[in-house]
Amino acid sequence: MRIDVLTLFPKMFDGFLSESILGKAIDNNLVEIKIINYREFSKSKHKKVDDSPYGGGPGMVLCVEPVYDALMSIKGQEKALKILVTPQGKTFHQEKAYELRDKEHIIILCGHYEGYDERIRDLFDLEVSIGDYVLTGGEIAAMALIDSITRLIPKVINKDESHIFDSFNDYLLEHPHYTRPSEFRGKKVPDVLISGNHKLIKEWRENESIKRTKERRIDLYNKYREEHGDE
Ligand code: ADE
After folding, report:
1. For the segment 173-225, what is each residue's pLDDT rounded down to a tens digit?
2. Which residues line ligand 1 (CB under 6 A)?
3. 167-228 classified as CATH 3.30.1330.10
4. Largest CB tally within 10 Å, which of 133, 150, 204, 219?
5. Which of the residues 10, 53, 87, 176 is marked catalytic?
6. Residue 173, class by beta-carbon neighbours within 10 Å (0-12 exposed, 13-18 middle, 19+ buried)?
């Protein structure tokens, strides 16, 4: 998979792309990520990429021209899936992450102003929000997308494909986990997990998963019940 990110703050991606699982995925050529500063495509003397809104009002609006030129500079852009990150987009979720990991080429635009010139929207296929709150810019949203998509690419996370058991698959949150010590400040690991009885452990985990989802995310729990009925 190839991902191109259009941003005004390329340095924000430095640590993100070099550390941990993503850094390894890039080193192992499982994903190729290119960061493009679209300010470089501004034709103005001071490399301006924003301007005041027609009709007046506060704030600045991102201009369409540098974004268009930056987009056109990307090889193969015509076939790529083009995503605009914005709080006005559809809320991102795990199912979408699975859908996007099968794409060959994705382009993500990060904004940093009051808004986008509406004609920028026409250049993109999809508008995505990472939640109902407003960030100062799209970079963190782009990173959230890239991280959640990349970790689903085969071989990025180790051999046992542990993401299959992630929260949200099958609409359930993950069950609680424990590791050593078996007792910490009077709090003990549930006996069943130490019992060695794999059938009981599986049952306990499923029940805890359902209980936790019902307590914390009734919306997900209801979806789960729709799929599974009253088993
Ligand atoms: N840019 C600013 N806030 C955002 C959000 N919540 N999601 C995506 N992009 C954003």
Report:
1. 999 999 999 999 999 999 999 999 999 999 999 999 999 999 999 999 999 99
2. 85-87, 129-131, 133-135, 138, 141
3. no
4. 150
5. 87
6. buried
